[in-house]
Write a structure and sequence with these properties.
It is built from ten helices and ten strands. The chain is α+β, with helices and mostly antiparallel strands. It is elongated, with a radius of gyration of 23 Å. This is GntR family transcriptional regulator.
């Protein structure tokens, strides 16, 4: 009994947190410190029971915390494995430029991910709602005006990568009804609008970082201490009319954003192709 208490004290200290939380905290620290690198197997439940002097149910509760955070995955009959996460690089200066994408490869996100040799996946929902004061200002509509919100959760290699909410003014959706389809617009909404004569020729971007909300952390499977990167893009036609406002929330630990500005012909080839 005293030996078990000593082992727990060595690993988790005299924390007032429940034992399963202490186990999760200790194993999380081991993973982030590199003791268990991406793709490696964790010790068996039996080994963890011995290490922490805890019941099997308590050990499993601690491991379930790490599963919820996206740090580990259960392998059927083979214990638990540390997630393998690769950082995805987004070239924001090319993103949504239709010259760099093919209609048959889907929207800009799918094109970017496939170009990197990785697998994209998206989940959609659509709703009609009232515009916030900020959205109304950006879209140049009255406060509380009706907008169509296209919400999308995006995955790279089955790992949550970003969540995105695009707001369209009701007048635009009335003229371009596929924007209200609850599923994917296969060729992408930017190309769909361009093919119907609504071409976005300029974008205003805003970037910010912050900690995720509880809902964002759950949907992106973000662990404690990981920030999000917020990208707000407003698209304009040649008539200087805003036609959409997109808010994208990226996982801070899985994303890298690059820009090429000015005369890109002057850049070394390796810089242009790095993204």
């Amino acid at each position: 009994m005293y030996e078990q208490v000593a082992r727990v004290s060595d690993d988790v200290g005299m924390s007032p947190a429940p034992l399963y939380r202490q186990i999760a905290d200790t194993m999380r620290s081991d993973i982030t410190a590199g003791r268990f690198p991406p793709g490696s197997k964790l010790p068996s439940e039996r080994e963890l029971i011995d290490r922490f002097g805890a019941a099997r149910g308590t050990v499993r509760a601690g491991l379930n915390v790490l599963i919820t955070e996206g740090l580990i995955t259960p392998a059927q009959g083979r214990g638990y494995q540390v997630q393998q996460h690769e950082v995805f690089t987004l070239d924001a200066s090319r993103h949504e430029n239709l010259l760099f994408s093919r209609p048959e490869d889907g929207d800009s996100f799918s094109n970017d991910v496939r170009h990197a040799g990785r697998a994209p996946h998206q989940e959609f929902r659509v709703e009609v709602t009232e515009a916030s004061a900020e959205a109304a200002q950006r879209l140049q509509i009255e406060d509380g005006g009706r907008i169509v919100l296209r919400y999308c959760r995006r995955f790279v290699d089955d790992t949550p990568w970003s969540i995105q909410a695009t707001q369209y003014p009701q007048w635009l959706v009335s003229e371009n009804p596929r924007l209200s389809d609850p599923g994917d617009v296969v060729e992408g909404t930017t190309r769909y609008l361009a093919d119907r004569g609504v071409k976005q020729v300029a974008f205003h971007d805003e970037w910010a970082t912050r900690m995720p909300t509880p809902d964002e952390a759950r949907e992106l499977q973000i662990g404690p201490g990981i920030p999000v990167l917020v990208w707000v893009r407003t698209g304009y036609t040649s008539e200087k009319r805003p036609v959409r406002r997109t808010v994208t929330i990226f996982r801070g630990d899985l994303n890298r954003v690059t820009y090429d500005l000015g005369d890109t012909d002057a850049l070394p080839t390796e810089e242009v192709n790095a993204a």
